[in-house]
Amino acid sequence: MNLSGGGATSRLIASLLDSIQELESKLDFFANFAVAKHDFATIKINESAKHNLESVVGVGDTQGGGSDFAIQAPPPCEKEKIESKLDTSRSKPFSMTNTNDLKALLDSIPTPPKQGWERVRLEKMLLKPKLNDIKIPKNNFLDKGNYPIISQENGIINGWTNLENPIIDLPLIVFGDHSCSLKFVDFPFFRGADGTQILKFKNKLNTKLAFYILKESEIPNKEKYERHFKYLKAIKIPLPPLEAQEKIVSAIDSVESQIKRIDSKLEMLETRKAEILANALNANNEREREREQAELKEILKTIESLLSQRAILQRFITKILQKAGLTQSLEALIASLPTPPREGWERVKLEQVCEIVRGITYDKTEQTTQKTQNIVLTADNITLNNTFELSKMIYLKQNFVGDRNKILRKNDIFMCFSSGSLKHIGKVAFIKDDIQYYAGGFMGILRSRFNAKFVFYSIANDDFKQKLENSATGSNINNLSSKINDLKIPLPPLAAQEKIVSAIESVEAKIHILEQHTNALEGEKERIIKESLSH
User: Fold this and answer.
1) DSSP 5
2) Which one in 33, 156, 454, 510 has a CA-CA gap of 20 to 30 Å to 492?
3) Selection from 141, 171, 174 nearest residue 158 by Cα
4) What is the torsional sign of CA 454, 455, 461, 462?
5) The whole model's pTM is what?
6) Of 16, 7, 127, whose CA–CA distance to 505 is shortest?
7) Closest by alpha carbon to 338, among 497, 461, 460?
8) SS3 labels along 358-410
């Protein structure tokens, strides 16, 4: 992609991609953490196989260099012993040392035409499912019963009931209206009474494919407690021919069957691990204790090996969806960005792009220590990373009447105009929703007449920050008020602005997901270290 002339946009996207690369490297390291921690046999893959695995699954060299990609395995005798106990299926799992299975599977995926698949709003594919009127409250859930209960909580099954006449118009997708959870259901069930939505689709859309696509889709305001079904229905999804849909689903199912196999083994290993730990204090002699500790050590190693393989297979599902043109890879997303003209986009003054509102001023006598509805926000509520974090509120007397235009609204850009410190000048935050707070006296509001998020990204970067610092005047307090109107930003056509914003938000969403995974795996790593050192 040619981003020449893109300036700050190019650097912002490059910075975001660097963050993704760093986080993905961490995830790859954690997935194979046991290789570095335990001193036991590994399966070595030659350079050619390593290259195939990287190209097929998207996993890089996790060992910080070297020519071998290592995936842990117990010693051969222990491996055979454990697998003989745990093998509950005749199907052969994908071989991690031979990528032919994965590569052949990926090659079988139908690819979209050059212009992509037809895209339709989800609500146009919906049918009215045949449902009963029963919604079971949480306090009526049983631990065991004849039929499962599905609510919007985590996990597929959230309880059980002995009621009769379950929902049997299958398959369906159960969507948590508040939690945004998605569950594919192909067995009779009852609903929980907590805001689930039931999705049934026309014959033109394979229900399981819709499930996979929606799992990869971004739902607006997902982090907020509100009803999200209206957003879900508005999502535009690709619609390949039915035959292509079935091939894609079959490929993903074959990967998921291996993941389920791994999960089954993990469950059995965790059960055995708990038994050993429970019996640790009751061992009759030292020899028995040593034998159980040795088995526990091998179980921990095997658990880590299975978690590593599971992580690779999970990422491979995303690879299948990208190959099928159902989700966009980051590379394709960035390549689709509009290319600026050789001389760069037209640059315009901020006063032409935004209404610029100075913050509210008031007499000190109007302040009060009591909480009121009149709240003023200062620069303390904007981080140096340009995010809005409510941390300091100034209260004005209840009878204070201020200019309502200075209250922050949805899509406002909240900016620090004046400060005793240059590093705080130009701090900005994007306001996602209407909030009944006044911008303070040293603050300002930029109300964009174009794409507000694009304007925010244009000024929330180091290049623009440097311009602001150079423009700030004042003997004691650095002040932008007289200069802000004349500062310029690049302004592509509106369609290009929307594409750029969409790309940046997609990258930021991926970073957010990777950070969540990284944090979870950090905790898992600490748990494994603690367990290993205590036995």
Assistant:
1) T
2) 510
3) 141
4) positive
5) 0.57
6) 16
7) 497
8) ECCCCCHHHEECCCCCEEEECHHHECCCCCECCCCEEEECCCCCCCHHHECCC
**What does the alpha-carbon distance between residue 90 and residue 411 come to, in Å, rounded to a whole number?**
56
Please report, in tens digits, the pLDDT of each residue of the chain (535 residues total).
334 345 555 566 556 656 655 655 555 544 444 333 332 222 232 334 334 444 444 443 333 333 333 333 334 444 344 344 444 333 344 443 345 677 888 888 998 888 888 889 999 999 999 999 999 999 999 999 999 999 998 888 999 999 999 999 999 999 998 889 999 999 999 999 888 999 999 999 999 999 999 988 878 777 778 888 999 998 888 999 999 999 999 999 888 888 888 888 888 888 888 888 777 666 566 777 777 778 888 888 888 888 878 888 888 888 888 888 887 666 666 767 788 888 888 899 999 999 999 999 999 899 999 999 999 999 999 998 888 999 899 999 999 999 999 999 999 999 998 887 777 888 899 998 888 899 998 899 999 998 999 999 988 887 787 777 777 666 556 777 677 888 888 889 988 888 888 778 777 776 776 666 666 666 666 666 666 555 5
163 near 190, Cβ under 8 Å?
yes
Distance between CA atoms of residues 135 and 194, nearest Å: 8
DSSP secondary structure of 56-112: HH----TTSSSS-EEEE---HHHHHHHHHHH---SSPPPPTT-THHHHHHHHTSPPP
Sign of CA dihedral 78, 79, 80, 84: positive
User: What distance in Å separates the CA atoms of residue 67 and residue 478, rounded to the nearest whole number?
Assistant: 55
Beta bridge partners of 310: none
Query: How far apart are the C-alpha atoms of 160 and 147, rounded to whole Å?
Result: 6
Which tokens sit at 363?
A: 């007499």
Q: Retrieve residue 214's tokens.
A: 């929606």
Q: SS3 of 415, please?
A: strand
| Distance of alpha carbon 148 from alpha carbon 132, whole angstroms | 15
Contacts with 13 (C-beta within 8 Å, 6 or more apart), sequence order = 3, 334, 337, 503, 504, 507
Sorted by sequence, the CB contacts under 8 Å of residue 271 that are 6+ apart come out as: none
Q: From residue 45, how far is each of 32, 64, 291, 312, 389 by CA, in Å?
A: 14, 16, 32, 15, 48
Residue type, 418: S
DSSP 152: S
Q: What count of other Cβ atoms lies within 10 Å of the Cβ of residue 380? A: 16
How far apart, in whole angstroms, are the C-alpha atoms of residue 108 and residue 130?
36
